[in-house]
Amino acid sequence: MSKGDLYIVATPIGNLQDITLRAIDVLKEVDCIAVEDTRHSRKLLNHYGIDKPLVSVHEHNESQRADEIIARLEVGGKVALISDAGTPLISDPGYTLVKKVVAAGYTVYPIPGACAAIAGLSASGLATDRFQFEGFLPQKTGVRLERLRQLSQQTSTLVFYEAPHRIVSFCLQLIESFGEEREAVFAREMTKNFETIHYGRLSEQLVWLKGDRNQQRGEFVVMIEGFKLAEKGEVLDIEAAQLMDLLLPDLPPNRAAQIAAKFFGKKKKLFYDYALSKKA
Ligand code: SAM
């Protein structure tokens, strides 16, 4: 008997047309589909005329279910994993399953499709050459704020998921950590009836959210522009700032700026101004 396969299948994040032809073929061909929530997925699968045995995989039973799925693969079974929406494993279950299935030597096939983070980025107008996916931050305020503090000088675009009931307090926490001038994009209800992609500084995002309770409803991807140190049109990037931070405790500003400017091949004044801004 041939060895079984596991397929990781992306499903829509709202609009039911956002599924690939291949995803539908695979879901029709497998012996069983692992899902987060059987009732939710049954509805989705009915829409595509797919009727297969479902097995629930969630946070609390994933390890045990992974062993059961591997037992199916051992006898040549073909299994698909879907989540409630979008790409499995992206802030969704599946990590333990995939890790165990890979370790057991079976092939895992990605069947790509919708992902809220990528959809949001694609319409954000923010830099996408480098981005950092943070997903949902921990819920405890202190832990959240500490994580945001660590991210405040990250130069890549930051991508968060947030629940609607926390969206206003999250916006306030973002302002506290990144300052109200930082550019942000709030992508709400993408691909659905009330899709809204709102662009602006964090201060403007807060006014928008607070000004209309309807804008606080639904699902959100929040994207934040990476840290920039702008000085008269020129930018001292994070690595340059870090070198200055290392040198400044031991050298006069002028000397530190000379060394750093030589190292990075940039104007000394940029570094000298940075040193002065640190003193202020
Ligand atoms: N696996 C999914 C994916 O590929 O994006 C994410 C699942 S996670 C449990 C759900 C979160 O994703 C929501 O709380 C929201 O932050 C984001 N999300 C999902 N669908 C969305 C949509 N249509 N518009 C905006 N954000 C969405």
Please describe what this structure looks like.
It is a single chain. The protein folds into three domains: 5-114, Tetrapyrrole methylase, N-terminal domain (Cobalt-precorrin-4 Transmethylase, domain 1); 117-224, Methyltransferase, Cobalt-precorrin-4 Transmethylase, Domain 2; 238-279. The model has no long low-confidence stretch (mean pLDDT 94). It is of the alpha/beta class. It has helices at 21-29, 38-47, 62-74, 95-103, 116-122, 141-151, 167-178, 202-211, 238-247, 253-264, 268-279; strands spanning 5-9, 32-35, 54-56, 78-81, 107-111, 131-135, 157-162, 183-188, 196-201, 220-224, 230-231, 234-235. The protein has eleven helices and twelve strands. A five-stranded parallel sheet has the order 3-2-4-1-5, sandwiched between helices. Strand 11 (230-231) and strand 12 form a beta hairpin. The protein is elongated, with a radius of gyration of 24 Å. The protein binds S-adenosylmethionine (SAM). S-adenosylmethionine binds at residues 13-14, 83, 85-87, 90-92, 115-117, 161-163, 187-192, 219-221.
